[in-house]
């Protein structure tokens, strides 16, 4: 049968990729394992849990001292020249011990944007302290009135001589209470065409006029709302062209995937944990529902792992994953939410217990995930945004937003 | 863009098989062969092009390719809804090659002139089996008395009409003419081969069904816009796209794992069939729904996919059975530390 063709994109298969990490990365893994064993204490993990701040200044400095902030940057930029698959190894080892490294994710999202959007002078001035761990960044895109509709940002920046004066508010400015800088999306033109009136600034958080208020979340993670009242920032900290912020942002959102190279899909860990716990009592102790849960979770976990590997393989290959990143995020988060809930039902009342207790192999693990999984379909681009991107770019359907 | 991970050679193979099937297996042929669902000419064509022996060694009469190469073919078979039990035949051929007991029979199978089929349909202790590809088969390979045996299929077998328009029939198993092929230690590998190729078939059909739905959504208008503008249409299609890419990646991995003999290959094969089964059914069902009333008519092709994306797979194995078996292999592998 002659089937309809959307365009040549529909017939391009995925990149050449390996299904497993090659053994050549084992020594790096070993090095990471030893490092994290030395630096991540149970006291640190407990403090992170209690405060909801997924950052430790001492650990961050130790990571910086290893040169690992620039893990994926080429040597001529002061990096280690390791690839996106080494970043996966890094993320896996960090997750194993619960290393609080969210600051690394957000800083890299900003720094990777600066690497392509900033001037040569800015790159040398800003990226060196980033590598040293002296500049850390959080993200200032979302506002009380706009999340998905990023271009509707209402925080303003008005030119005043060699500076800009910023007024407004950002929300979910996670780690603003620990970072040195916030990457702020501001409106710099009023009334003009949409997408041509935004500008990005790297604003020092110790500037006069910055206020940080904490927000508690369902998962226990702490985030912030940040107010900017007459905050002055030098034009030297404007990143990209005046009114050129939107195209910088678009690239930055692709790098959001790149910045989260250290993150491994949570569902991969969950599927391994459920399999491990299930096998403790012996196969015959499981109900059919529990077996079905083990089987489906393992399948979804393996697919999530592969979709993530595909994104990384494209990055290693020098390509920019866009649809592939959306597919990975949509798939992993959708299945995490559903599978956590199903696993809790399958394994019964013990799963609502919030701490590890004797005689219950699954207490403490799923309860947190149920609370945390709710945000995974929201942050980094909601599932609805991801679906729209996939519908437009993979299926050629018209924009619905 | 898809989840398949093909080499340059495999892309060329895919192109040529697709071009051949575009001409040799148009929708009119698929319809003309209903309800029995087998075309001997197509089977012959597969043999002539060396596509049945693509995953067999040259010594065995094949072309020395891999299971991944056969997977490329199975995807195109599914995409075109080709009335030829490719997965069943290739799985049987690989078994016959391993056993070495029926070289003449194998040669004839590879030429496309006779058909032997294998599938994981349970037969133990029964004296007949409802075999999905019976009316296409000269013989079938089944489990009997602790071995895998070759049972001939009579010429006058009655077709049993079924949802997926398969050449289904009830095959008697106790006529006493069964010949031993090999022991049950070959069963796991044969099942895994079949699962991966059948998953590929389902995924080819799923991708075609999705494309039909997306094409309709791009052109059909309602309330002043193309219906693909509405998120109620576009978002489920996007979900299916993500699940489909994932299932394709997983199936490609499963074929690779069999080709390089990874310990996880049985787990991956079962997973790939589970994932393929679920997304194929959803893709065809939602795509039919997108077509509105026209989707429900026999004139439109989407109903051909709707039948087969459920009926092809469920004739062989239920989701419950698949899930149960997968859990067993997973827990078994975990205990053994693999």
What does this structure look like?
With 401 residues, chain A is of the alpha+beta class. Helices cover 45% and strands 13% of the residues of chain A. Chain A contains 12 helices and 8 strands. In chain A, the strands form 2 sheets. A 4-stranded mixed sheet of chain A has the order 1-4-5-8, covered by helices on one side. In chain A, strands 2-3-7-6 form a 4-stranded antiparallel sheet, with no helix packed on it. In chain A, helix 1 (26-39) runs parallel beside helix 4, helix 5 (102-117) runs antiparallel to helix 6 and helix 9 (288-316) runs antiparallel to helix 10 (323-347). The two termini of chain A are 35 Å apart. Chain B is built from 11 helices and 8 strands. In chain B, strand 7 (221-222) and strand 8 form a beta hairpin. Chains A and B meet through helix 8, helix 9, helix 10 and helix 12 of A and helix 7, strand 8, helix 8, helix 9 and helix 11 of B.
Total number of beta strands of chain A: 8
Question: Element order, helices and strands of chain B?
Answer: HHHHHHEEEEEEHEEHHHH
Number of helices of chain B: 11
Bulk shape of chain A: globular
Basic shape of chain B: globular
Question: Which structural category do the helix and sheet elements of chain A fall into?
Answer: alpha+beta
**Overall radius of gyration of chain B:** 20 Å
The CA-CA distance between the termini of chain A, in Å, is: 35 Å
Task: List low-pLDDT spans of chain A.
Answer: 1-12
Strand order of the largest sheet of chain B: 1-3-4-6
Order of adjacent strands in the largest pleated sheet of chain A:
1-4-5-8
In short, what is this structure?
The complex is a heterodimer of chains A (about 400) and B (about 350). Chain A is an alpha+beta fold and about 400 residues long.
Index terms:
heterodimer; A: 401 residues; alpha+beta; 4-stranded antiparallel β-sheet; 12 helices; 8 strands; disordered N terminus; B: 338 residues; 4-stranded mixed β-sheet; 11 helices; globular
